[in-house]
């Protein structure tokens, strides 16, 4: 299961935060490869921190809708496959522009 976020546009431009992030990255010469590498490193670091318990004092356990206790961020994925990451389609600006 993956949550689906509503498309929330910024009032003054009509575009999403993701669209603005894409434009900013492009303006600073940050390409897809650099962004993917950063995302992989970020997930790997979060996964290792979660696994080692180094941030255990920062995590608050909550009760899910089904009554189960949730104490791990299920969206953190460690040791991603580079080929699978590269195969993902753009999510923000390109999606808004119909690409």
* Total beta strand runs: 2
Strand order of the largest sheet: 1-2
- The secondary-structure class comes to mainly alpha
Biggest pleated sheet: 2 strands, antiparallel
Mean pLDDT: 84
Please estimate the helix content: 40-55%
Can you tell me the residue ranges where pLDDT is under 50 for at least 5 consecutive residues?
Answer: none
Give the amount of beta strand, in percent: under 5%
Task: Figure out the total of helices.
Answer: 4
Q: Which overall shape is indicated by the principal axes computed on the Cα atoms?
A: globular
Descriptive account of the structure:
- This protein is mainly α and 99 residues long.
- The chain has a domain at 31-96.
- The protein is 42% helix and 4% strand.
- It is built from four helices and two strands.
- It has helices at 17-27, 32-52, 82-87, 93-96; strands spanning 62-63, 69-70.
- Strands 1-2 form a two-stranded antiparallel ribbon.
- A hairpin with a 5-residue loop joins β1 (62-63) and β2 (69-70).
- The longest helix is centred in the middle third of the chain and has 21 residues, at 32-52.
- It is globular, with a radius of gyration of 17 Å.
- GO terms for molecular function: acyltransferase activity, transferring groups other than amino-acyl groups.
- InterPro entries: 3-ketoacyl-CoA_Thiolase, Thiolase-like, Thiolase_N.
- This is Thiolase N-terminal domain-containing protein.
